Amino acid sequence: MNTKFRGYRTDGGGWHYGTYHYSADGKYHYILSLEKFNERPHVNGVKSLDELCLFKTEVSLVHPESVGQWTGRTDQNGVEMYGGDSVDVFDDSEYIGTFTISYNEKLCAFMLKSNNGFTSFLIDTSYEYTVTGNTFEAKNTAV
């Protein structure tokens, strides 16, 4: 599985996908799109520009509270599931409830958490999931 993150751009330009980085002082949080970075033209096997110089299309400042890691899973519609996403959970087409995906650092695992506090691991492949939104956009509907 590739480690991939997304974050909502501070300029209102939507979601940006790639690797997550932040400054040592924690003031700046950004997503670097390695795919766009790797599309740069090469001259004799070397990038045509200094590799430390990033283009605006390759890196975006993001709201730190919007950053979510890809779980490595997709929902029943093929939509990638990220930390912070809200998902409807179904068992044999029967609605179980709506949960939020979060990452538990102590358990090193993605978890599902309901509004009433119920928590479960996001490893059960017998359930069907549908991404319905995410916590960042729900809190920032004006974004």
Topology:
Blueprint: E1 5-8, E2 15-22, E3 29-32, H1 34-38, E4 42-43, E5 46-47, E6 59-61, E7 68-74, E8 80-82, E9 85-91, E10 94-104, E11 109-114, E12 119-121, E13 128-134, H2 135-139
Antiparallel strand pairs: 1-2, 1-7, 2-3, 3-6, 4-5, 7-8, 9-10, 9-13, 10-11, 11-12
Describe the structure.
This protein has 143 residues and is mainly β. The chain folds into two domains: 5-65, no CATH class; 70-139, YopX-like domains (SH3 type barrels), CATH 2.30.30. It has helices at residues 34-38, 135-139, and strands at residues 5-8, 15-22, 29-32, 42-43, 46-47, 59-61, 68-74, 80-82, 85-91, 94-104, 109-114, 119-121, 128-134. Strand 11 (109-114) and strand 12 (119-121) form a beta hairpin. The protein starts with a strand and ends with a helix. The model has no long low-confidence stretch (mean pLDDT 84).
- If you compute it from the alpha carbons, what radius of gyration comes out, rounded to the nearest whole angstrom? 18 Å
Portion of residues in beta strands equals over 45%
Mean model confidence by pLDDT: 84
CATH class wording of the largest domain: Mainly Beta
Mass-distribution shape: globular
Q: What's the CATH topology label of the largest domain?
A: SH3 type barrels
Number of domains: 2
CATH homolog superfamily of the largest domain: YopX-like domains
What is the structural class?
A: mainly beta
Order of helices and strands: EEEHEEEEEEEEEEH
Strand order of the largest sheet: 6-3-2-1-7-8
The number of helical runs is: 2
The biggest beta sheet is recorded as: 6 strands, antiparallel
Question: What distance lies between the first and last C-alpha atoms, to the nearest angstrom?
Answer: 30 Å
User: What oligomeric state do these chains adopt?
Assistant: single chain
**Which stretches of 5+ consecutive residues score pLDDT under 50?**
none
